[in-house]
Structures are given as structure tokens and as C-alpha cells.
């Protein structure tokens, strides 16, 4: 039964970023749930493995449920509750129940690697076959938002790339042979190139912050880390100075930095305006959210419906969106959830033997959280398949981490 469930989990994670077969993920999740039910009936054991995140799930879920009572569209928010909370909670718990050994974790990672290889291969082939530009976004054939491979667009594809990237180097940890090292390095380079050609600046920021965090995680003397960080910052500064203007600000024609930042019709200026207005809405209604779901604020506030708002039909910031949906207490509950996950990953990273798979996975999760948080400071792609991928990978890390007595004590504090 466990092997069948593991097979469906692999199918699920491979199909997650492929937009045209989105129904497969739900079917696979359903079969994994049936496997869990069948196993419980056969062995008469229903107690799930603890994760030390139960309290965080419950607290966050409580505020999601409370938002249904203040929702501007309760039916929509209820549907989002099922699709964005219950489904992710179920996925997280099922992964923890079935990925119980390092061998199974390696099988899942192999599926993630295979799926990523498909995505970057198709994306790069699409880029060159359609005459993609390395300087600016192509304005023909629907690729104005960047090349999205088999995903639904450049924004979601870039988020997928930075979410999965830290986990792709697992081959270098498990297999020390030269071909595994070469494959891991080649795949990493292909992902970096694929991320670049999406021309998603928020994702670039998320990736760079992830690299900076990786420098601190890598074992070594402080002066070596300081040197690496200095070289990294100098490289970024040089890149910003040498990069063509249209690469950094896309097709926007601006005469000055003030115009770029202040004019609402510009992509950067539009974000500043939207953030300011969204923050004002949150301050005016700190305890009464519009209801769970990214479209709830759009349904409640006129600003997001105006023509001059352009593409900014939501706050373009994960935390502002959640604040408007759930209220300030719900936002704090989500931040507590992320902090709990970070703390769990950090404890695992410190305690696990260096060079082992649990140690690597804990570090990868820490980097993933950094990348996803900074990426979604400029937009909000923490929904649908990208959110499912995040919780799937986090569950794999939690599943392989060895539970210790003090962890149980900390959970009940």
C-alpha cells in the first residue's frame, strides 16, 4: 500500500507545474488519501505521525474559517478554503505519513528532478525555437510576460523554479560519482538560465536572496563567508551597472528614476501605489478581512476594479493580500506558521550530521522559504500549484527529520 501511495505522490509532484494536466494532481492526491484509508482499515491504526506543525496549521486554519463569516463573497471564500487550505493540509499530512524513510525521500526527489528536467528542457527549446531575446521580453505570440515552459505563465514558472531549485542539488549529496555531480551542475545551470529568460524581476530578487542565505549556511570560517558575500554583492552591483536598461525595466520608457517609481502606469510605480493603497485598507480594517481568497479584496474594494489600476487587481504582495483577506490577526498567524517552519528547519539543520540527506533537506527548505518569501513580496504566487509544491517539499523535510523528545516538549509550549 505504501509503495502505491508513493507512486501517486511522485506522479503528483511531476504533474504539479504542468498547467494542461492539472486534474492529475487532484486524482493522484485522491488515490493517496484512499491508500491511507485502506492502510488504516487493514492495520487498525489511525494515529498520524506527528509533525510539530499541528498547532500552526490549526491556528492559521482557525483564522481562515473566521474569515468566512466576514467574507464579502462567502461562497467564493469557502471554495478557496477547500482548495487552498484543506487540500494543502491534506497533502502535507499525507506526504509525512508515506515518506517515512530516506529511500522514499530519494524516490520523491528523483521524481522532482525528472519533472524539472522536462520543464526546463521544454522552456529552453521553446525560447530558442520562437526566437527569444536575451535582452528583453518578446512581445509576440503571447510571451510578453516571459517564457513559461509548460506552466501557466512566466510568473508561475519563475516561482516554480526558485521553489524547487535548492532541492535539485540532492544528487551531489547522495551520489559522489562524477556523472551525478555533472548532472546536478548542468541542471542547476539550466534552471538559472530558465529563470533569467522568464524576465520576472521579483523572482530574480528571490533567487539572489536565496544565494545570499546559502553563503551563510555553507560550513566554513567567517572570513571565507564574508569574502564570498562581498564577491556576490560586487557581482550584483556590476551586473546592475552593465545590464541593458530594457532588461531591468522591460519595455517601459522612462526619463528618470522618480518617473519609474511614482507613475502608477509603470510596473514598479504601479506596485508602489498598490502597496500604499492596500496598506491603507488594512489599517482601516485591521480585524475584519474581506474573506479568504486572493480575489476577495478585489470584490470588496473599488481600487482594484478601476481601469487605471491595470493589472493590479490584488495587492501584489503575499502578506498584504493575506492581511486584507484574513485581517491582521490572520496575517500574524501565517507569519507564525512560517516562523515555526523556519525554526523547525534550522533545528534540523543544526542537529543533522553534515553531508547526510536530512541535513541537506533542512538547508534546502530554509533556502526555499527565503526565496518564496522575497519573490512574493512583489507579487502573490503563493496559490494553486506553486503553494502545493511549497507544502509538498516542506512535508518531505519534516518527514525525514528524526523526532526527538525535546521537539515534542517544544511543540506543547
Element pattern in H and E = HHHHHHHHHHHHHHHHHH
Low-confidence region ranges: 140-144, 403-413
| Main β sheet profile | none
Let me know the average pLDDT. 85
Descriptive overview:
It contains 18 helices and no strands. The protein starts with a helix and ends with a helix. The chain has one domain. With 413 residues, it is mostly helical. Residues 140-144 and 403-413 have low confidence and may be disordered.
What's this entry about, in short?
By secondary structure, this protein is an all-alpha fold. It is 69% helix and 0% strand.
Please supply descriptive tags for the structure shown above.
globular, 413 residues, mainly alpha, disordered C terminus
Present the secondary structure layout.
Elements: H1 2-15, H2 23-43, H3 54-67, H4 74-98, H5 102-129, H6 154-164, H7 170-174, H8 178-197, H9 201-217, H10 222-242, H11 245-249, H12 257-262, H13 267-284, H14 296-300, H15 318-351, H16 357-375, H17 384-400, H18 405-411
Helix pairs in contact: 1-2, 1-5, 2-4, 3-4, 3-15, 4-17, 5-8, 6-8, 6-9, 6-16, 6-17, 9-16, 13-15, 15-16, 16-17
Amino acid at each position: 500500500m505504501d509503495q502505491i501511495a508513493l507512486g501517486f505522490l511522485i506522479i503528483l509532484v511531476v504533474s504539479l507545474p504542468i498547467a494542461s494536466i492539472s486534474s492529475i494532481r487532484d486524482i493522484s492526491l485522491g488515490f493517496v488519501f484512499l491508500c491511507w484509508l485502506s492502510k488504516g482499515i487493514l492495520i487498525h491504526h489511525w494515529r498520524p505521525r506527528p509533525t510539530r506543525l499541528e498547532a500552526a496549521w490549526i491556528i492559521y486554519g482557525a483564522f481562515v474559517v473566521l474569515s468566512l463569516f466576514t467574507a464579502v463573497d462567502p461562497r467564493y471564500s469557502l471554495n478557496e478554503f477547500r482548495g487552498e487550505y484543506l487540500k494543502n493540509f491534506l497533502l502535507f499530512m499525507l506526504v509525512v505519513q508515506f515518506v517515512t524513510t530516506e529511500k522514499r525521500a530519494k524516490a520523491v526527489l528523483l521524481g522532482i528532478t525528472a519533472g524539472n528536467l522536462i520543464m526546463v528542457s521544454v522552456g529552453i527549446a521553446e525560447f530558442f525555437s520562437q526566437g527569444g531575446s536575451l535582452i528583453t521580453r518578446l512581445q509576440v505570440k503571447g510571451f510578453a510576460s516571459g517564457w513559461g515552459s509548460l506552466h501557466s505563465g512566466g510568473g508561475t514558472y519563475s516561482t516554480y523554479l526558485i521553489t524547487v531549485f535548492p532541492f535539485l542539488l540532492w544528487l551531489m549529496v547522495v551520489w559522489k560519482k562524477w556523472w551525478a555531480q555533472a548532472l546536478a551542475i548542468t541542471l542547476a545551470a539550466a534552471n538559472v538560465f530558465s529563470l533569467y529568460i522568464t524576465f520576472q524581476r521579483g523572482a530574480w530578487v528571490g533567487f539572489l536572496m536565496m544565494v545570499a542565505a546559502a553563503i551563510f549556511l555553507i560550513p566554513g570560517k567567517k572570513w571565507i563567508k564574508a569574502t564570498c558575500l562581498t564577491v556576490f554583492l560586487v557581482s550584483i552591483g556590476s551586473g546592475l551597472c552593465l545590464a541593458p536598461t530594457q532588461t531591468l525595466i522591460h519595455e517601459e520608457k522612462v526619463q528618470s528614476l522618480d518617473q519609474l517609481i511614482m507613475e502608477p502606469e509603470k510596473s514598479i510605480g504601479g506596485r508602489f501605489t498598490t502597496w500604499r493603497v492596500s496598506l491603507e485598507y488594512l489599517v482601516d480594517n485591521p480585524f475584519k478581512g474581506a474573506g479568504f481568497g486572493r480575489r476577495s479584496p478585489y470584490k470588496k474594494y473599488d481600487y482594484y476594479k478601476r481601469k487605471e489600476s491595470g493589472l493590479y487587481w490584488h495587492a501584489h504582495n503575499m502578506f498584504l493580500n493575506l492581511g486584507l483577506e484574513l485581517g491582521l490577526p490572520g496575517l500574524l498567524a501565517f507569519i507564525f506558521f512560517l516562523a515555526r517552519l523556519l525554526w523547525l528547519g534550522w533545528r534540523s539543520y543544526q542537529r543533522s550530521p553534515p553531508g547526510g540527506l536530512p541535513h541537506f533537506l533542512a538547508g534546502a527548505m530554509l533556502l526555499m522559504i527565503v526565496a518564496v518569501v522575497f519573490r512574493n513580496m512583489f507579487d502573490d504566487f503563493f496559490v494553486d500549484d506553486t503553494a502545493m509544491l511549497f507544502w509538498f517539499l516542506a512535508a518531505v523535510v519534516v518527514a525525514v527529520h528524526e523526532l526527538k523528545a525535546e521537539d515534542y516538549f517544544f511543540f506543547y509550549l
